[in-house]
Design goal:
alpha/beta; 6-stranded mixed beta sheet; binds adenosine-5'-triphosphate; transport; MacB-like_ATP-bd; ABC_transporter-like_ATP-bd; ATP hydrolysis activity
């Protein structure tokens, strides 16, 4: 992202959600984005992922410039080159695990590569569950399906918006361990918004947003160091 700004609304009511944000996220890294409520985290994620367009500045995915792309091409880019994991798992209740995972491929008119599907299912720990429907799975298992669905297209980046926000502590740790593994063993790039210092400690780098700006960056974070930094940002006041 190069000098990315995002302003919502106009005139007196205008809100600057991002102010000249410049950052490069390396391929194969795990990045957590933190900051107080309203600091611009979701806006950052949406602009980075091509879900929303900045008011000014430029966003690139690899060598592709997203700025100025029309909605049709952006939709295609999101389907093929980006994966998403949200707090709500957003699974289709009438479809099986396998059908949910392969949905992005089918929407794109692509057949699932059997070996890759098996590998993804195995990696997220869902072998033996592939015929189940979401309602027959625990919350953690449902989020694993969502992660597998995000990985199936071999995207350049997986974006997570509070991916563990709806899970209990133990289950959240399992899911974070899985995200860490996909970075370490598959070279996947992951960018995740979180409020949780423990979740952020699984990342390689934490970006701190405050009032629409990146105000700090922490490498090799620990949960204590992240919590302490957040307190100084006024996040817990
Ligand atoms: N569609 C919108 N229209 C107007 N203002 C918006 C819109 N979306 C976000 N904002 C404003 O932009 C600022 C940043 O919002 P954003 O959702 O990116 O923050 P956040 O850090 O993700 O917050 P939270 O942690 O509470 O989810 C906030 O002041 C918010 O009120």
């Amino acid at each position: 992202m190069q000098a990315v700004s995002k302003v919502y609304g106009r005139g007196q009511g205008a809100v600057a959600a991002l102010r000249e944000v410049t950052v490069g996220i390396p391929r194969g890294s795990f990045t957590a984005v933190m900051g107080p409520s309203g600091s611009g985290k979701s806006t950052f994620l949406h602009c980075a992922a091509g879900l929303d367009s900045p008011s000014s500045g430029s966003v690139r995915l690899g060598d592709t410039e997203l700025t100025g792309m029309d909605e049709t091409r952006l939709t295609e880019l999101r389907r093929k080159r980006v994966g998403f994991v949200f707090q709500a798992f957003n699974l289709v209740s009438s479809l099986t695990v396998t059908q949910n995972i392969t949905l992005p491929l089918r929407l794109g008119g692509v057949r699932a590569d059997r070996a890759w599907l098996d590998e993804v299912v195995h990696r997220v720990g869902l072998a033996g569950r592939t015929g189940h429907r979401p309602a027959e799975l625990s919350g953690g298992q449902q989020q694993r399906v969502a992660i597998a669905r995000a990985l199936i297209t071999r995207p350049e980046v997986v974006f997570g918006d509070e991916p563990t926000g709806a899970l209990d502590t133990m289950t959240a740790r399992d899911v974070l361990t899985l995200l860490r593994e996909v970075v370490d063993t598959m070279g996947q790039t992951v960018v995740m918004v979180t409020h949780d210092p423990v979740a952020a400690s699984y990342a390689d780098t934490v970006l701190y947003l405050a009032d629409g700006r990146i105000v700090d960056e922490m490498r090799a974070p620990t949960a204590d160091a992240v919590a302490e930094r957040m307190t100084r940002l006024g996040a817990y006041v």
